[in-house]
Write a structure and sequence with these properties.
about 80 residues; SH3 type barrels; 5-stranded antiparallel beta sheet; 5 strands; Ferrous iron transport protein A
C-alpha cells in the first residue's frame, strides 16, 4: 500500500520510493529528513481540506508534514 492509504497511528516501514515521481529538490529534502527505504513511519494526522492535504507523519521523534503526492510515491508495509 502507499503511505497516503496507511491508517492513522499504524506503524509501517517504507519498502520502496518512486523518486522519479518527485522533483529532485523535494526528493533530497525527504532523504535529508530520513524518509527513505527502511524507515519506520506513522501517519499521525491528515488535513481536512483539499483532499486531506497535508499528512503529518512521525519518523523517529520528528513530525514532518508531507503532501499527499509525496506520500503516494512511497510504498509501505504495516508492522
Amino acid at each position: 500500500m502507499t503511505l497516503d492509504a496507511l491508517p492513522l497511528r499504524r506503524r509501517a516501514q517504507i519498502t520502496a520510493v518512486d523518486w522519479s515521481a518527485l522533483v529532485d529538490e523535494e526528493a533530497r529534502r525527504l532523504r535529508a529528513l530520513g524518509i527513505d527505504v527502511g524507515a519506520q513511519i506513522t501517519v499521525s494526522h491528515r488535513g481536512i481540506f483539499a483532499g486531506a492535504d497535508p499528512l503529518a507523519v512521525q519518523i523517529g521523534r520528528m513530525t514532518v508534514a508531507l503532501r499527499r503526492v509525496h506520500a503516494r510515491a512511497m510504498q509501505v508495509e504495516a508492522l
